[in-house]
Model the fold of this input.
Amino acid sequence: MKTVIITGASRGIGLATVKKFLAEGWRVIGTYLNSPIDMNHPDLISIQYDQGDSSSVAKVASQIIDLAFPLDALINNAGVLLDTNDIVADPIKIRKTLEINLVGVIDLTERLLPLFFKGSQIVNIDSGYGAMSIPIDDESVIGYRLAKVALNMYTRHLAFRLQTRGMVVSSLAPGWVKTDMGYSVSTETEKPDREPEQAANDIFQLVTTVKESGQFWKLGEKIAW
Ligand SMILES: NC(=O)c1ccc[n+]([C@@H]2O[C@H](COP(=O)([O-])OP(=O)(O)OC[C@H]3O[C@@H](n4cnc5c(N)ncnc54)[C@H](OP(=O)(O)O)[C@@H]3O)[C@@H](O)[C@H]2O)c1
Done:
């Protein structure tokens, strides 16, 4: 049985992705921060951790290592959007965003690298906000953009480092998805248009079909960084 770790598995895109992988016969290790994953399944292992707290990241990594499953895939999905309406850069929110959305992701990934093997997949869930190629059309979401741009560089850097091990590392932008985070940036006239299940299918397709490492994907296509 194949094993995938999905962070941020309690809600939104993460929960839909848990359901997709379980339905496809995978073992899933799902993580959450505050809201436990509201489902029971014999192949689901649920673990709490705070990606913004280095001791919590170290603890969850050792719990996962102790499980001793070779890891076929890691989906770095957990994240926050703290500066939705801020048009002035707020250093406190930026620091917190970078801790959770960037440093915590890197810390967890690096600690788990010994569990991966040739063909294993790492997917960093990124965003159009993290694409330097997409023009900026509003003043807000500063810290979130910075974290996602930097996460993309981590994807490229890690892909380069792991090429001799035959591992595939990707960034994936899920589109504008109907989740708590997706709705937090909606307006009266503009709302998210994708279901979490569609994003979950994109992630599953990427993990099970893509062999080219170090790319940025959206809706099944490669996009410019
Ligand atoms: N929704 C969109 O339109 C959209 C667009 C582009 C990219 N994305 C990206 O897609 C990913 C998932 O987004 P989503 O919309 O599904 O978000 P969401 O519905 O807000 O869910 C966020 C998930 O992350 C977990 N989480 C939050 N802070 C955490 C922390 N400090 N430590 C560990 N886990 C934490 C939450 O756990 P609890 O439930 O326990 O709090 C929850 O499971 C994120 O990386 C986001 O940046 C989303």
